Amino acid sequence: MNMFSKKIILPFFALLLFSTLSCNMKNGQGLNFFSIQDDIEMGKQFSQELERDKQNYPILPESTNKEAYQYIRGLTNKILNSGEVAYKNEFEWQVKIIKDDNTLNAFAVPGGYLYVYTGLIKYLDSEDQLAGVMGHEIAHAALRHSTQQMSKIYGLDALRAVATGKQEGGTLSQMALSVISLGFSRKHESQADEYSVRYLCPTEYNAAGAAGFFEKLNDGGGARQPEFLSTHPDPGNRVKDINKQKVDLGCGGKATNQGQYNKIKKML
Question: Residue 118 to residues 50, 130, 147, 209: CA-CA distances in angstroms?
Fold first, then answer.
């Protein structure tokens, strides 16, 4: 790069950094070099790449599983319509089911693309538990934890990726994949737990639904603990914190919809 190019590009990075950080700090978010539109575009690209990888991410066909998709989207929409979710109208909020009965997991990528494994759905006991987990994943997207992590891990490389749409050795979506594979920080996990309760509080659900998942893991629950828990807050402490949050917010919902949930489980 010649000196003339440096004189143009470096001030551009500085201006981009200032404007992006100013916006994020104003919204109460942490360090984030990415815009809302970056989250949306990155999530779209990542979801397309993921769904082409049928070996690692075997998406359950919607054509033969319409009732299951209608159910999971209805549950998700109740959370999104709680009035508590940021970027509810800006992000895509698409939900897909991954056919893998051996994996206890759900995850979100930037822009509101949500994925839940059949193994998790079959492992849980009631709808409020699944709603709690989905609320947790919605929080990761709405609070923009992935792009915060990318900003922290990649630093100026992330800033260059914002400006150019790529980084040395890969694309923005590959950066997102590496961050999601590493998992979120303890702070982000605790925050997602908190916001799961906030999201469920105005709904019919037991707002501490996510606690049921961690209680079952604590008790053994008939399954091996997911690997992501090895580097994250202790499940027992998370149960206490989630239940306390429910009490502090005065949440009155009690619905578990266990009968309907069992019906869906049998379909998968």
Answer: 17, 11, 27, 18
The structural domain count of the chain equals: 1
pLDDT digits (tens, 9 = 90+) for 47-103: 998 899 999 999 999 999 999 999 999 999 999 999 999 999 999 999 999 999 999
Question: Is the dihedral angle over the CA atoms 244, 247, 250, 256 positive or is it negative?
Answer: positive
DSSP structural state of residue 120: H
Can you give the residue range of the structural domain that contains 95? 17-267
- What is the value of pTM for the model shown? 0.83
Q: Which two tokens stand for residue 110?
A: 């930037």
Are 110 and 129 in contact, with CB atoms under 8 Å apart?
A: no
Distance CA 91, CA 110 (A): 9
CA gyration radius, the chain: 19
